[in-house]
Amino acid sequence: MLLRRSANLDDVDQLPLRMLANLGDAVSGLYERERAIFSCASAKQMHRQVKERVNAKTQADLLDQITDLLNEKELNLVRRARNLKTAHHRKSDQSFYRKATAFEALIGYLYMADVKRLNELFEALDRIRSGQERQPES
Predict the structure, then answer these.
(1) Is 36 domain-assigned?
(2) Looking at the annotation, which residues are catalytic?
(3) How far is it, in rounded angstroms, from Cα 118 to Cα 10?
(4) Where on the phi/psi map is residue 85: left (φ > 0), alpha (ψ -120 to 50), or beta?
(5) What's the gap between Cα 55 and its chain centre?
(6) 33 Cβ neighbours under 8 A, 6+ residues apart
(7) Residue 4 domain flag
(8) For residue 136, is it within any domain?
(9) Which of 118, 120, 123, 98 is nearest to 108 (CA)?
(10) How far does Cα 20 stand from its chain's mean position?
């Protein structure tokens, strides 16, 4: 991974959840761009595809899809990040923003602490998405 230095797990555990979420947002954005780059004919098409995948609603759905795969430490981090106060005041969307923040914090944490585990979760999401993309719409 670019510019990533090995981090001491104790140091990563001390990072504020908002910082991990900020990093996780960047990592998930890069991941989605890597997924899209070979399947898109133009930068504009790639941007649209990534924009559809990197938003609060989609990230909240992704978190729901991998929750059963998370270990106790990851679930605890997700719970704490989900309980962070949101900057958005739209009550109808608040649950999406909270879950998206939790998803991003998890991605940021794993990027710093355990890239192998991060790749496992990304691969699981790819398998889940592949299965959903093949199912006929009802």
Answers:
(1) yes
(2) 25
(3) 18
(4) beta
(5) 10
(6) 46, 50
(7) no
(8) no
(9) 118
(10) 11
Question: How does pLDDT run across 29-57, given as a tens digit for each residue?
Answer: 999 998 888 888 898 998 888 888 888 89
State the CATH number of the domain containing residue 47: 1.10.1520.10
Q: What is the pLDDT along the chain (138 residues), one digit of tens a residue?
A: 445 556 777 788 889 999 999 999 999 999 999 888 888 889 899 888 888 888 889 999 999 999 999 999 999 999 999 998 766 556 557 888 899 999 999 999 999 999 999 999 999 998 988 886 444 444
Structurally, how many domains does the chain consist of?
A: 1
Whole domain around residue 108: which residue ranges?
A: 9-129
Q: 110, 100, 123: which is closest to 53 by C-alpha?
A: 100
Q: Residue 2 falls within a domain, yes or no?
A: no
